[in-house]
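Subject: Sanity check before I submit

Could someone independently write out the structure tokens for this chain? I want to compare against mine line by line before I put it in a report. The sequence has 428 residues.
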Amino acid sequence: MASSGMGAIATTLLSLCRAGDRIVAGRELYGDTRDLLVRDLPALGIRIDFVATADLAEWEAALAAGPAAVAYSESLSNPQLRVLDIPRVAELAHERGARLVVDNTFASAFTVQPLGLGADVVVHSATKFLNGHSDVVAGAMVADAASVREVQRRVVTFGTCLDPHAAFLVARALHTYELRLGRQAAAAAGIARWLEDSPEVVQVSYPGLASHPDAAVAERTWRPGRRGAMVAFVVRGGNERAARFLRALNIVREATSLGGVETLISAPNNSSHFSYTPQELNLAGIKPGLVRLSVGIEDAAESPRRRLSLWAPILPASPNNGDTPAPRSTAVPGPSASPDPDLTFLGASGVFARWFDVAVKGGTLRPLGWARVDPALSCGRVLSPAELAATADRERRRHAHGPHACYRYSPPPFWGRVEAALQLGWRL
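---
Independent answer below. Compare away.
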């Protein structure tokens, strides 16, 4: 075990590779894993060659191009949901003397068990499905005893040890693992089928759908009838409309994590893969408007439409079928706009902070309204009166669903204009 999924991945690769070695890796990866491969490992003298995760011809050519210490990929890519042909890639890697390391976080051991298919090492972000309650950050590495000992030495040396209480929470969560994943996967399959029929969705990616390009690979290599609890889909209208859709949801929560008992949704372009340039997003297959959905264990009888709160009248299409982004309002709300002058709302859709003007008589701070911190832009803007009313109502409804939805607290005093701080990119 390690203190995080990235701790497990980094210590594993640093244990298996030395300066002068080469890694052949699937291109479709979690953003921080990709940063490790393109920024940190090359600085240590380790060469990285990328291939398309689902393209066996590219794997074969890259592995045949020269000695490689490791072949690395995700069993189900984040967030495109492409499926790795583990038996065939393991065979290609072993023919060239390389070990296959598989990140099984997205698919989970409930769905596929890579070690039984020829992989040499499996890594997990145990934060996700293994723990499943969104209250632990942890990682795991599974392999033969000799490899585990080598990784464990570096876990100690690099300080990525998991604390005992976090380990206990993960161990306890495993008692409900099959129950949780079974329910989540069943719900995900139903939501994926429903999304395919929505006119607001351009494309749906779920390995259990016949339309998925790797459905045959999943059928051949994954456990029977199990296709995971992750769904990806492209919202018509691109990133701007997808962002409006995410922030309009009432039951599903926008957050960058996944695998928990609650249904979470995010836009990879401004969360897990925020460091990618537009060209890199395109090369990785992350299309404009792509949304990642991690399905939870909410009432299975609850319809997908109620769960996702789709679409109209919450999300009216902008002109040209939503392809033209709606202009952002710069109107300043009046001083009475705040529905509760003593509270600040921290919603799952962003941070809403009081906006103050100190240039008033008597030196007393006078609230003029609320501003919103956009997590994608790390900056703030003032909400229009209509946006403010809708936001306040939506955030109060979020709070009614439980403590995960919205946290309320009395804000500390702000000296100077909070709006100015937001424009500088400060996070509150």
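---
OP: Matches mine. For the report I'm noting this point. The chain has three domains: 5-174, 177-322, 344-423.
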